[in-house]
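From: lab user (bench 3)
To: helpdesk
Subject: output format question, protein + FO1

Hello, I'm new to running complex predictions and I'm not sure whether the block I got back is the full result or only part of it. Here's what I submitted:
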Amino acid sequence: MQITALAGGVGGARFLRGLLAHLDRSPDLAGSTITVIGNTGDDITLFGLRVCPDLDTLLYTLGGGIDEQQGWGRADETHSVQGELAAYGAEPQWFGLGDKDFATHIVRSQWLGQGVSLSEVTARLAARWGLPDRGVTLLPMSDTPVETHVVVDRGEGPSAIHFQEWWVRHQAAVPAERFVAIGMDRATAAPGVLDALRNADLVLLPPSNPVVSIGIVLGVPGVRDALRGTTAPVVGVSPLIGGAPVRGHADACLSAIGVESTTQAVAGLYADFLDGWLVDERDAEVEVGGPRFDPGLQVRALPLWMKDVDHAADIAGAALELGLELGRQGRHAV
Ligand code: FO1
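Helpdesk reply: Thanks, we reran it on our side. This is the complete output you should expect:
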């Protein structure tokens, strides 16, 4: 089975690690491949180095090097370089970069500086983390630099700050007026991205942030059309449980775009291409008069809390099962 997934940071990476675990325990799915289209809107240049947080979280999580408690950065990290940078008064100090993590940013920046595309750079990094051996291809959504910036107003009128400053330094506590994907107007989908969506047997939307992760990938020219036009069933996993994000600040992002923090509203953001939607059991009952799911959307309820890889594998298995069911129904047949 050829599976294609859009993905952001921690939630997406943990779900995809579960998907790999599910495939490992499903002999009937042996030989399946996964193409992951990673969000690059979180990317930031720090100390002259290009940092790609969502791609790195995917590399480290699927490659077995992630700091499990944080969900980002490397396991067993040290911060000698960061301490020396602070001693020199180098800014910023609010973004934690470990010594091992720096190697990723240094080698990526070296290759980018030699004119190597982000796609090729990412393929080289993925090879080191053993992703090809697991049948996984990681593609950046675009080789064109795109950066999400956040328009905030702290009393002296609107100003824009980098997404990471809003997310990490301010912990999304400063109300966002809107998000702007700088560079998206010049961006094209990276090689293989649109084909991976059009030719998939199944497309998955992991429980990544619907606004600043999945939403940014959907903004790449051609991606939404490919999702509308693919014959593959498209199945998503709610990033909200009981109206609250599992982690991160998805609720702050949703309110910034005027969308209520309900699983129905998030599914509504994908209404033009979504066929199936997994919700937590707490969101299974649509209370009378409450928000509705779009008619025709196939909704399944199960525990969505990915407390460990096995639970993530169960969720991924449910997404695959729903996808196969939808495929048999010929859903999304153009
Ligand atoms: N998130 C934080 O909350 N604090 C940090 O200091 C931080 C550092 C960091 C370094 C490298 C990296 O790849 C990710 C890092 N993140 C940090 C997470 C990052 O902000 C988010 O994972 C994504 O950008 C949003 O999904």
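A quick orientation on your result: The pocket of FO1 is lined by residues 8-10, 42, 53-54, 56-57, 72-73, 95-97, 101, 164, 167-168 (CB under 6 Å). Let us know if anything else is unclear.
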